[in-house]
Amino acid sequence: MSDGPIDLHTHSSVSDGTETPTQLVRAAVEAGLGTVALTDHDSTAGWHEAFAAAAGTGLTVIPGMELSTNWGPASVHVLAYLFDPNNGDIVAETARIRDGRLHRAEQIVERIAADYDLTWDDVLAESSDGTTLGRPHIADALVRKGFVPNRTAAFESILHWRGGYYVKYYAPSPVEGVRTIVAAGGVAVLAHPVTSNKYRPMDDTVIRQLVDVGLFGLELDHRDNTVEGKVRLRTLAKKFGLELTGSSDYHGEGKPNRLAENTTSPEVLAKLVARGTGSAPFVG
Ligand code: AMP
Ligand code: FE
Ligand code: FE
Ligand code: ZN
Predict the structure, then answer these.
(1) Whose CA is nearest to atom 18 of ligand 1?
(2) Ranges of CATH 1.10.150.650 domains, the chain
(3) Which atom of ligand 1 lies nearest, measured to the CA of 15?
(4) Domain with CATH 3.20.20.140 in the chain
(5) Whose CA is nearest to atom 14 of ligand 1?
(6) CB neighbours of 127 closer than 8 A, spacing ≥ 6?
(7) CA–CA separation, 128 and 227 (whole Å)
(8) Ligand 3 is a single-atom ion; what residues have CB below 5 A from it?
């Protein structure tokens, strides 16, 4: 494993980041990172390109993914590391989620098109083949058409869940999600668990259920976690013996988050690597 900062949450153009896996790896090397995890939403399609780009750079790449799950009305993200990308349940479940996202994006665009001059082709033009589609791609189309100045403005208006055009998409429950990741030899970490939004945070009973199916850790240091929420995460970690991670959730130019603005300790990374048996870190 390489020395240098450890950032375990980033997105490429395989999902809603703006840089290809190659560009993202180059950015990580330039930022002086020792280890980066590529965690595209519901897809492992960027792994090989990221490994190839890291070869000879000294950067370690942890293969990962950010799995979408639904807890009641709330969308809960689970970071998954070092699982077998060919595991049948992982392949089937992520295909089902990506398909659900695709149809849901079409439905959102249909709704928006009633009020704005926006077509499905405008959105497809903002993504490449096989991309995990999401609201960020619709946001990019809205920006290109001049309806909003940037992604954030789109999320605060037209794409907001209360904006009148929002549609949900299929995803498994957090418990099913963690169980599937662990069964595929992976390591599961709850992503940004305490952001401020309309939903009640998951209570201790749910966290216990996740621990029972093998949850490894909680993403503590993330810019969207609230200060009070972080206090609760430390308490939960002690109570359930969970590890704490920190990460940027880098999306290239798609979000203000910068690489290594939050990091994970080498001790926690070592435990995570020891736990993951479905695939291996790529030491570049
Ligand atoms: P979706 O998964 O399609 O519902 O869209 C949610 C995704 O949009 C998240 O994964 C975020 O990365 C991204 N996102 C949320 N808010 C913003 C924002 N203000 N600016 C850019 N991207 C955002
Ligand atoms: Fe995202
Ligand atoms: Fe997320
Ligand atoms: Zn993310």
Answers:
(1) 152
(2) 102-156
(3) 10
(4) 6-94+169-283
(5) 136
(6) 13, 133, 137
(7) 37
(8) 77, 191
Q: Which residues contact 52 (CB under 8 A, 6 or more apart)?
A: 22
Ligand 1 pocket, CB under 6 A = 16, 41, 134-136, 151-152, 155, 251, 254-255
Instruction: Please report where in the chains the tokens 């970690």 appear, as a residue.
Output: 237
Q: What pTM did the predictor assign?
A: 0.97
Please say whether the beta carbons of 85 and 47 come within 8 A: yes
In this structure, whether the domain defined by 6-94+169-283 belongs to CATH 1.10.1660.10 is answered with no
Ligand 3 mean position, distance from CA 279 (Å): 22
Q: Which residues of 127-164 are buried (b: 16+ CB within 10 A; e: fewer)?
A: beeebbbbbbbbbbbbbeeebbeebeebbeebbeeeee
Question: Tens digit of pLDDT for each residue in 9-27?
Answer: 999 999 999 999 999 999 9
How many other CB atoms are there within 10 angstroms of residue 229's CB atom?
17
CA 204 to chain centre: 23
* CATH no. of 102-156: 1.10.150.650
Compute, in angstroms, the gap from residue 10 CA to the centroid of ligand 2: 9
- Does position 197 have pLDDT exceeding 80, yes or no? no
The SS3 call for residue 16 is coil
- DSSP assigned state of 150: S
Mean pLDDT of the residues in the chain: 97
- The amino acid occupying position 267 is E
